[in-house]
Amino acid sequence: MNMHSKGKRRPKQNGAFPLKFALALLASACTYGADTVLAFDPAKTSIHWTLGTVLHTVHGTFQLRSGTIHFDPATGQASGAIVIAAPTGESGNESRDKKMHQSILESVRFPEVVFTPNKVIGAVAAEGKSTVQIQGSFQLHGTGHDFTMPVEVDIKNGQAMAASHFSVPYIKWGLKNPSTFVLRVNDAVDIDVQATARLN
Predict the structure, then answer these.
(1) What DSSP character marks residue 185?
(2) CA 148 from chain center: how many Å?
(3) Which of 20, 68, 167, 199 has its CA 20 to 30 A from that of 174?
């Protein structure tokens, strides 16, 4: 007489399933943990602008209000915002600056110039120098424009030094042309940024 139970046979377990599930959880955790944050220090950031004319070149500055970039080194996806205080723009000439703020930038209506990143192209080394392209939206005079910013980064001991040079076609983007009959002004302004950020 067969004394063994004739109950239902247990389905054979797939040993690969728990392993795949664990790997998926690990990958998810790693992706979340991979988010890198650059927190810029306004006091250690300089923004210089240069505008050429037929007679001379005008130099000036703006001040950074705040700046934070989040990005995933694995995918390059980015977020955050770099905010420049428009009313801080100055060139050292009171009458020229008054015209710039009232007629060109309209700083009272549009007090912020904002770059919002969405993609970092290129690898950022954990230590040392890297060159990347940061894609995003450049909001000037209340309107956003697709923009790619070249950035050189030098990371040492958890601190990043970032430098960028680019041109902003402000007239093409809808701002008033400051040229007069006797004084022709370039239709793009050159921007140079030197910034220090804490790396988290």
Answers:
(1) B
(2) 9
(3) 68
